[in-house]
Amino acid sequence: MKSTRRGFLRCGILNAAPALIGLTAKADRRIEGQFVNEAFALGHRLRDRAPFRTPDRMERKQIAIVGGGMAGLSAAWRLDKRGFHDFVILEMESSAGGNSRWGENEITAYPWAAHYVPVPDARETLVRELFEELGVLKDGQWDERALCFEPQERLYIHGRWQEGIEPEADATAKDRDDYRRFQTRMAEFRGSGELTIPMERGAKTNSVLAKLDSMSFEDWLRENQFTSPYLDWYANYACRDDYGALARDTSAWAGLHYFASRAAEEKGPLTWPEGNGWIARRLIEKVRPYLRTGSPVYAIVPEKTRVRVRTEAVEYLADRVVFAAPTFLAHYVIEGAPPAAGFVYSPWLTANLTLDRLPAEHDIEAAWDNVIFDSPALGYVSATHMSLRTFIDRTVWTFYWSLAEGSPEENRTKLLDRDWGWWREAILNDLSRAHPDIRQCVARMDVMRMGHAMARPVPGFLKSETRRQFASDKGPIYYANSDLSGFSIFEEAQYHGVTAADRALRDVGKA
């Protein structure tokens, strides 16, 4: 969901810690749907080192990019812009985009995961370079059609909707004092220049950051005597939102980075009906001649003067490899690669609900980002919110659920063991608290399960030796996934993809 970092002097409601929603079969209209974009079976084949078919032909490429998510597409974008064309992008799935994939039906395009980019400030030169190229930024001005329309956010609390997702009701003087002190601390961290996007621009050896990385965000809040239950709820929502984790499982460095890494005043965010799929689609158009989808890489073998990259159809002989797939896969694919110790990944579930009529609303106007306070999920965004149509009677909602309670391993099992009908009921029961007539509105619900959806910045990760090794500039294989930062956002994926591409270009003498 949207990572709002505005101040929140307005405060709210006592934190509840809800378990999964109880399920009750409903004798309502039939809702069609299925699981989509299922890739875990292939991932499990790699994990189990199952046999793959031997390729029957060979191709020579100077650079091979493994993975067609945002990191891989950004690496390809960089190579192509530098006038280098002797490369290939190998994507496991039938479509590229990774966590920025999108879908489309007769109503609208819609995201499958990432759905916005905060407006980048002047220091975020790579993102701004891309957006200038795509026409989103021109002569220093942002395209108004890409800036999120109002109203942007709302929160369902106390049985009604309120504008904004920072809870406002029943705040005490102590709550407000905690928020003011928290804002002051965030301004201090923001001014220090230590918490940046991309994160590698910030200080890397600062002793304060080392301490923050060694403790949880929850412990930092307690150490600094932030005891407001309202602030506690918001901190946990932020961590679930960006990291798929609770504050107790997130490093203090990452928790503070969420709130203090961007300018205090933000317009935007930048978004489109298909979310970040809009960016992915245009990058794919630019690099399509190099892209090979449906090409899972099952073995990468470094040799003295080259690297063998094997798919079932083709074995590629490359001088350098940009490994833009999740880093934990390296141990299963790359000969000699160590386990990605300390890399933790959060399981997620997203669903796209096709509504053939809108629910009845009694409080305030529907927003782009809609959050239910006492929910284990993160709420939904409306794909038609950015439409220029004057009347909308049908829409698609993208519903987000990070499985943060319990261990990632347990939640991955839960994610795969429960069938589509179970998740359909869980989602509808959650939404029905804010929309009692939701079951009469939904015609279809497609669900996507991601066992390793995004990196989780656990305490100790930033300074870990394992992360340092994988982020090294020593080839012939360069790692490029956003998980090297410990969290998954577009800016980090782009940075690591471009950095790996530059290193590969340097090595092949084309920099």
List the helices and strands and how they pair.
Blueprint: E1 32-35, H1 40-47, E2 57-66, H2 70-81, E3 87-90, E4 102-104, E5 109-111, H3 125-133, E6 137-138, E7 141-142, E8 153-157, E9 160-163, H4 173-192, H5 207-214, H6 217-223, H7 229-243, H8 252-260, H9 277-287, E10 291-292, E11 299-302, E12 307-310, E13 314-323, H10 330-333, E14 344-355, E15 369-372, E16 379-382, E17 395-402, H11 408-417, H12 420-432, E18 442-456, H13 465-470, E19 477-479, H14 490-507
Parallel strand pairs: 1-18, 2-3, 2-13, 3-10, 8-15, 13-19
Antiparallel strand pairs: 4-5, 6-7, 8-9, 11-12, 12-13, 14-17, 14-18, 15-16, 16-17
Structure characterization notes:
This protein is an alpha/beta fold and 511 residues long. It has two domains: 51-104 and 273-343 and 461-507, FAD/NAD(P)-binding domain, CATH 3.50.50.60; 153-267 and 346-456, Polyamine Oxidase, Chain A, domain 2 (Alpha-Beta Complex), CATH 3.90.660. Helices cover 29% and strands 20% of the residues. The protein is built from 14 helices and 19 strands. It has helices at 40-47, 70-81, 125-133, 173-192, 207-214, 217-223, 229-243, 252-260, 277-287, 330-333, 408-417, 420-432, 465-470, 490-507; strands spanning 32-35, 57-66, 87-90, 102-104, 109-111, 137-138, 141-142, 153-157, 160-163, 291-292, 299-302, 307-310, 314-323, 344-355, 369-372, 379-382, 395-402, 442-456, 477-479. It has an eight-stranded mixed beta sheet with strand order 1-18-14-17-16-15-8-9. Strands 2, 3, 10, 11, 12, 13 and 19 form a seven-stranded mixed beta sheet that branches. Helix 2 crosses helix 9 (277-287), helix 2 (70-81) packs across helix 14 and helix 6 crosses helix 8 (252-260). Residues 1-26 have low confidence and may be disordered.
